[in-house]
Amino acid sequence: MTPLPLPSDPPPLFKDLLVEPEEARSILRPQKDERYGFGFALSPYRGCGHGCRYCYVREYPNALHGPADWGGWVAPKLNAPELLWSQRHKLHEARVFMASATDPYQPLERQYRLSRRCLEVLLLCPTTEVILHTRSPLVLQDLDLLRAFGDRLSVGLSIPTDDDTVRQTVEPRAPAIPSRWAAAERLAAAGIQVTIGVAPLLAVHDARAFARRARASGASNAWVGGLRLLQQDPFYKLLADHGWLKVLDPDYKEGIRAAFLETFPPRRPKREAKAEPVAPPRGPAARQPGLFDRVS
Predict the structure, then answer these.
(1) Are 215 and 194 in contact (CB under 8 A)?
(2) The domain containing residue 31 runs over which residues?
(3) Residue 158: is it exposed, middle or buried by C-beta count within 10 angstroms (0-12/13-18/19+)?
(4) Judging by DSSP bridges, how do beta strands 73-76 and 18-19 pair with one another?
(5) Do both 70 and 29 map to the same domain?
(6) Whether residue 38 sits in one domain with residue 130
(7) What percentage of the chain exceeds 90 in pLDDT?
(8) In terms of domains, do 120 and 182 share one?
(9) What is the pLDDT of residue 73?
(10) What was the pLDDT predicted at 232?
(11) CA 81 to CA 70: how far, in whole Å?
């Protein structure tokens, strides 16, 4: 791969964000998830400009920044695509979640394009599945690239509430809820599998209408996830001040989940055919690019 030149200074759009480009030593983190069972998490950035006030990543140890600084700094991993290319041998028949500790389509992606360049590497790994998760319609800038994956890629859109006034309080720098619905619709219309992630669950105005809106967007699936607070988390006071402590009640979560299950019932496993299966003709097996393969 030929590295693309990257700008050294952030444009005026990001002037209030401390940008600290770095060279990462690793890019693939082995990870097991009870829902997806993915093999590796991939984060092209450290930190996140969205700065959601509840984000559990605030507690991750960092030598320069504490939880109170979350959202004010981002470290783009400048060598992420090259590192990923050098480690592609690990990805044979593996699943990659992008990203677990940052949003791959946070605003800085407009400039650095690290998520796109990592996706270009993953596209060259024909046995690798990709789960892309974001809360940003910026993902649409790579629509053609996402379509090239076919059924190897799915996109999860985080829409934790049906009320944008709630979003303005807890995710003030993240995209508005209506723009996320519009992104889901465009992705689904392009033939990309879309999942709506109601996570972390925030205050919801009308659960059944919320679920119907998710279905109308073209999403093929949806799931509801709980809120994870840090120890002595200041976000607890924000919830209390706005009368939203109900989101911490397991019964509230189950009620929202039940509404979504009405609209997105679990898929039943297909019945096994009684007839003996006919073996398909053998063709060339898909493989990951070799270390010395020429890639155009």
Answers:
(1) no
(2) 18-134
(3) buried
(4) parallel
(5) yes
(6) yes
(7) 66
(8) no
(9) 79
(10) 87
(11) 25
Diameter of the chain by CA atoms? 65
Enter the tokens of residue 82. 């090259």
> pLDDT tens across 173-232, in order?
999 999 999 999 999 999 999 999 999 999 999 999 999 999 999 999 999 999 988 888
Number of domains within the chain: 2
- What is the model's pTM? 0.83
Do 175 and 250 lie in a common domain? yes
**Is 292 inside a domain boundary?**
no
Q: Are residues 212 and 255 in the same domain?
A: yes
What are 111-159's pLDDT values in tens digits? Answer: 999 999 999 999 999 999 999 999 999 999 999 999 999 999 999 999 9
The answer on 205 and 255 residing in a single domain is: yes
Structure-token pair, residue 276: 């003996």
**Two tokens at 283?**
């063709």
Residue 12 lies in a domain: no
Amino acid at 93: E
Asked, for residue 67, whether it belongs to a domain, the answer is: yes
Give the pairing of strands 221-224 and 193-198. Answer: parallel
Are residue 227 and residue 164 in the same domain, yes or no?
A: yes
Query: What is the C-alpha separation between 245 and 116, in angstroms, rounded?
Result: 38
How sure is the predictor about 71, in pLDDT bands with cuts at 50, 70 and 90? low
User: Residue 197: phi, psi to the nearest 5?
Assistant: -100, 105
